[in-house]
Amino acid sequence: MSAAGDRLQDAARRTALALPDVSHGRPFTPTLDVYKVAGKVFLIVTEDPDEQIITVKCEPEHARAQERGYATITPGRYLDKRHWISLGPGPGITERLITDAVEHSYDLVVEALPRRDRTGAR
Asked: Of 12, 59, 66, 119, which sits with the fewest C-beta atoms within 10 Å of its C-beta?
């Protein structure tokens, strides 16, 4: 477990919980903290102290650019590797980058929802 990993995960959790209509739980396993909007996943926080990552939805072209730009951004763990990325602590991984990634993931999920399910979402 690292202080940088704790900060990364705490920033992701705070950002997610500040967004409208977010729920969270552990529907898959006790080691994955899952955040959803309208029942759709937009953030997974791994509770493994040896692998402090978050996984977010991302447009494929942007995902590949992020992976090339940061050594600790990789194709998404647990989900479709074209549309999801995992971020771990490392050089250049700032709180602003984490906040932007979580908000972008949330927005992508909300945009894909039917209009009737977007109530309260930003």
From this structure: 119
